């Protein structure tokens, strides 16, 4: 079942390196690797002597809809036959092998792959077994060693994760880092007239609320407030919302003031008495009840 963000109507990217899984042990890991390939635009998969045979139902489940890669996967009995037609081969490993081979990262491998494919070469990347990785003899068949800047105290990656990182670097280069979507500009930026009208509104109400405690500092404070809003790149919709917020605050303040005035005006007591003083008569009645 395709996940969120999947658009099956879009064309599938072509090209890229061949991914070669050497004696993978679990169908779940094959499926996870295939899902990563599909995420990042790789489609050519070769599997060397899978332990649980082929096809593998668990691989289908974990591929999460990248069925076309599984359907077109090629199965080989040994590594040499799987790479015989390739022109350039990288071996992914987390261990130093004592070989005189160039050691490159996934980003450099992406650049090397793009260059060689442009020249007409076929490029492959070897990934080893989940438990032991690639054997030294298998690494010796490759042109370069591919590794990742992982924590040396815990360098072992899950097969699917390793394929995902390498595939990501390839697709980032191939797609020029283009993101699948951008936030649309739904509202036009406010023009200066709209912005200045908002300044007038908010400054008028701040003055009425006695926000400006010092007349000498008011011009500087006003400039600082204006600069805050200038930096935001406000849209007309933003300004409409801000106008509404200020109006609601003013209305709330006025409503509270009216309620307070009404409450104070309704207090009983002799003329000139403190309207906030307690109601003595009521307290006396309460005392009688005790």
From TrEMBL:
Keywords: Cytoplasm, Methyltransferase, S-adenosyl-L-methionine, Transferase, tRNA processing. The keyword Glycosyltransferase does not apply. It comes from the Bacteria. This is tRNA (cytidine/uridine-2'-O-)-methyltransferase TrmJ. The lineage of its organism: Bacteria, Pseudomonadati, Pseudomonadota, Alphaproteobacteria, Hyphomicrobiales. Homodimer. Its EC number is 2.1.1.200. Catalyzes the formation of 2'O-methylated cytidine (Cm32) or 2'O-methylated uridine (Um32) at position 32 in tRNA. The gene is trmJ. Residues 260-290 are annotated as: Disordered. It comes from Ancylobacter mangrovi. Residues 276-290 have a biased composition (Acidic residues). Its main location: cytoplasm. One of its GO terms (cellular component) is cytosol. Belongs to the class IV-like SAM-binding methyltransferase superfamily. RNA methyltransferase TrmH family. Transmembrane segments: none annotated. The keyword S-adenosyl-L-methionine applies. GO terms for biological process: tRNA nucleoside ribose methylation. It is found in: Cytoplasm.
């Amino acid at each position: 079942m395709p996940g969120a963000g999947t658009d099956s109507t879009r064309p599938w990217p072509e090209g890229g390196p061949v991914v070669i899984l050497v004696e993978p042990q679990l169908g779940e890991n094959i499926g996870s690797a295939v899902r990563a390939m599909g995420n990042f635009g790789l489609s050519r998969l070769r599997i060397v002597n899978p332990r649980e045979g082929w096809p593998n139902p668990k691989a289908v489940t974990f591929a999460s809809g990248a069925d076309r890669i599984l359907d077109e996967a090629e199965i080989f009995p040994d590594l040499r036959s799987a790479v015989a037609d390739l022109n350039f081969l990288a071996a992914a490993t987390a261990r130093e092998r004592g070989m005189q081979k160039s050691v490159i990262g996934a980003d450099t491998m992406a650049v090397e792959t793009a260059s060689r494919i442009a020249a007409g070469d076929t490029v492959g990347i070897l990934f080893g077994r989940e438990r032991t990785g690639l054997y030294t003899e298998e690494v010796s068949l490759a042109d370069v060693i591919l590794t990742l800047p992982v924590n040396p105290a815990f360098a072992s990656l899950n097969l699917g994760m390793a394929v995902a990182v390498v595939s990501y670097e390839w697709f980032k280069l191939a797609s020029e880092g283009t993101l699948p979507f951008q936030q649309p500009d739904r509202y036009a930026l406010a023009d200066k007239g709209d912005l200045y009208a908002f300044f007038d509104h908010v400054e008028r109400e701040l003055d009425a609320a006695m926000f400006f405690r010092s007349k000498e500092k008011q011009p500087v404070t006003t400039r600082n407030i204006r600069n805050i809003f200038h930096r935001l790149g406000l849209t007309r919709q933003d300004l409409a919302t801000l106008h509404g917020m200020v109006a609601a605050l003013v209305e709330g303040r006025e409503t509270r003031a009216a309620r307070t005035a009404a409450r104070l005006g309704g207090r009983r007591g002799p003329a000139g008495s403190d309207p906030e003083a307690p109601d003595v008569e009521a307290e006396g009645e309460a005392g009688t009840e005790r």
